[in-house]
Request: fold
Amino acid sequence: MTNTSLVLHELKVTLAADVKPEYTTMLASIQEKMPAVAQSTSNFYKSHSQFMGVTLDVTAITPIRSVKHTLAEIDKTRGALQEAYIGMKKKENELKKKERDVEVCEDDLDRELLDIEILEIQGHLEGTRNSVQGAIRKMSFFTNQYENLMKHIGKEELTEADYELEETRYHIMTCMKQGLNSARPRGGTIDEGNLIYLFDLGINAAQAQAEVFAYLQWENKIISEGKAPTHANTMEWLEACADKWASCPTDFAKSRGFDVYDPLSLTNVPQLEAAE
Reply:
């Protein structure tokens, strides 16, 4: 009998003489249906669906950034699992102590209180186990997605250098994605926040604005012809923007006395050896 079933049973016994008979009937009905409800509920002991995981949680637009965000989800879930496991072991220890105390307790009221405390701990453990199972499923999903992403980019491992070298592309594409989406409800005009973002990347805002106008005009032309622009078209445009302005962030950083890439400050051992 699960902790919930036990509570329902005890409620039915306790309330039998004090409430209207229909409540006893309701409790009996709930108790009968709880196993099926518990089985269905077990599907949802996780924060998000797999669909949300890859479309709304990991939203990075470039492959290596997607790997980074996926690893962050794995690490966050691992930490939560570790914390839950430690909390669960503490509660199990507390439960054993309470059960030991019951065996030697001579006072009826003290024993009754211990039984209640045991019931409370068992309920906590039941909820924690459900959450742990959901977290395990989430962690399994994201570790599989990590493997998929690595196959997609054709690498067996990533280095810090890989991550740093993709950053220019990631920020240009992210900025233009945001700029395009902000322009759609604003008559084609990029919002102020993304204009500042463009400046910080060393990209002329007027040129970026012209690209957005041109792309929106192309979409309208396609629609007027009875066709439908696709998400893939937008991604191709973003890739082209990243290609066009690939040197801008580096050039702007150099004009201010910075290097955007310093291999001597990375954890990539082969790069360090090559630099010596």
Observations:
- The chain has a mean pLDDT of 90.
